[in-house]
Amino acid sequence: MRLILLGAPGAGKGTQANFIKEKYNIPQISTGDMLRAAIKAGTELGLAAKKVMDAGGLVSDDIMIGLVKDRLKDQDTENGYLFDGFPRTIAQADAMKEAGINVDYVLEFDVPDELIVERMSGRRSHPASGRVYHTKFNPPKVDNVDDITGEPLVQRDDDLEETVKKRLGVYHNQTEVLLGYYNQWAQSGLPGAPQYRKISGVGPVDEVRERAFAALSQ
Length: 218
Ligand code: AP5
Ligand code: ZN
Prior knowledge:
48% of the residues lie in helices and 15% in strands. With 218 residues, it is of the alpha/beta class. The chain has a five-stranded parallel sheet, sandwiched between helices. Strands 5-6 form a two-stranded antiparallel sheet. Residues 13-14, 32, 84-85 line the site of zinc ion. Its EC number is 2.7.4.3.
């Protein structure tokens, strides 16, 4: 299974990626998680990315495309791969296409902007695994502790309300155009074209999971 998850910040891409990657035994290539790991490691890339991310902007296409290509070289992709947060611009999608990094499915999570800020303000993450929780909607078994490792959870620096609003604006201006891009490609039926699936990302996490699994099995 090779797929791309599309959707606004907070639509639930990371949450659902964790279920999908387990079901299909595939690596989750989350460019946001990769950048956060670079920040934590204190690399030059991390330092530069942190400024952009905290401001709610996008890291440059050249950097992101290079990062993803390098990652794919090191990654076992025998069973496929899941992209979460990439591509995010037409330039990134074109670069993927040119490099022959094809996917079987593009899965879009549809969530209205009104729900996003509330989702982000309660988000808690376990950076090492990519597991995501919400204080109210998807709480860990013990407050602020990862269910599996028992390690502490963290709040993301870009989840401040102001930054979330900026990220939503950037999504509408630069990423939403990819919905049409992939829809059209899917309809063309050309070789390499993906299947396009759109599901509602609203409702309990396990209901969205069932919708995602059903969409990927048709
Ligand atoms: P990234 O980490 O990709 O952030 P994002 O796309 O903004 O998406 P999020 O991770 O915020 O949301 P999500 O859809 O994964 O939702 P989640 O499952 O966590 O990118 C961060 C930054 O890195 C970017 O702003 C940019 O600067 C940079 N970057 C990354 N990739 C880039 C690229 N390709 N090019 C350029 N720059 C790049 O869920 C959110 C919350 O909601 C959680 O608390 C969760 O528990 C809760 N929740 C989930 N599902 C439900 C549900 N059904 N009901 C209720 N609550 C739910
Ligand atoms: Zn995410």
